[in-house]
Amino acid sequence: MSLVRALLTSQNPLFNSGKPFASPLQFSIYRTLTTSSSPLLEPDAQTVQTKKLSLLFQEAVGLCEKTEPDIEIESHSSGVKKKLWELEREVRDLRKADSKNDEKHQNVETAETGESKSLYAMFTGVKHRKKVETQRREPEEPRIFKELSLDMKMFVNHLYENGYFRDANFLRGDRLDLSCFDDSYGRDFIKFAAKKFGEDHQEIAKWLSGSDLKKVALFGCPSATRRDVFSAKSLRNYFEIKEDTVCGKCVLKHSCKFVNQSVRKGDHKTLNLAVVMRLITLYALEAVHPELPVPDEIKASVSRLLKEVVKLSQTIS
């Protein structure tokens, strides 16, 4: 018994010969401290390991500078470190790609700016900043149209009686009011109705006066717009009139884009009444270019052609 007490006294520092054993709680704390000595006895190793992992993560996302040799050595010993190393490489690749895109964008902007400046400096020798000046548009004055001629009133009345103004919503009531044609919309509707009339009465084209038609063809074009020019060229092509003989003396050739150009499409052996009606209606309405004076001879031919068209349409139909 004395031998056991001696052993307990030497091995257990909590043992007191004059006192009983410590409480179970104190004994469990002592046992825990004595049995779990490995993590407590090696605090430096655990701290070192934690610092290395956190350092690897910071280096991977670019929060601090990395040390290449340490990472390469440790990447072979841990799967976590390998993943961190791959993450670092991906982050570096993405950063390189972003930096390259930014450089390209800056180079493009610099090149465009430099090109415009260099071109301006090349011609002027002075650096200048472009200024955008906004010009105020003045309101257009309302166009004043002349009163319809007697021949034109007769032709408009004929169109009205044959239903060519049936869809004209500007006409009021069941009677023809010629004052409704004193604006651009009414005049354009007359041109449209005359063209439609020509399409519906193509059979009377061969009965029209050839001499008056040829005079109109030799005179030229009523304006320099594409549609008017090609209508006049089509009529000249029917009479086999060369373009240079008309375009050479035309007063509108400085503003015309179709000088000496011939019309190749369409049937040139048949007189197109829709083309004829468009031309003679423009002359009868005086809807020609302001710089184009129309001689009385042409006005007389147009007047006779309008009367023939009305008379032939009443006779043949």
Quick recap of the structure?
The protein is an all-alpha fold and 317 residues long.
Q: Mind explaining what this structure looks like?
A:
The protein is mostly helical and 317 residues long. The relative contact order is 0.07. Helix content is 59%, strand content 0%. The protein has a domain of 160 residues.
Strand and helix map with partners:
Elements lengths: L1 H10 L12 H12 L1 H5 L1 H18 L7 H7 L4 H46 L25 H12 L22 H17 L9 H10 L6 H13 L4 H5 L25 H12 L11 H21 L1
Spell out the key features of this protein:
single chain; 317 residues; mainly alpha; 13 helices; 59% helix; disordered N terminus; mRNA binding
Order of helices and strands: HHHHHHHHHHHHH
Quaternary organisation of the protein chains: single chain
Helix content: 55-70%
Rg, rounded, reads: 51 Å
Q: Flag low-confidence runs.
A: 1-50, 69-76, 110-116, 128-134
Structural class category: mainly alpha
Through-space gap between termini: 152 Å
The number of distinct helices, counting runs of at least 4 residues, comes to 13
Average pLDDT, rounded to a whole number, is 75
Q: Strand portion, in percent?
A: under 5%
Biggest sheet overview: none
The count of DSSP E runs of length 2 or more, i.e. the number of strands, is 0
CA-based shape:
elongated
GO molecular function: mRNA binding
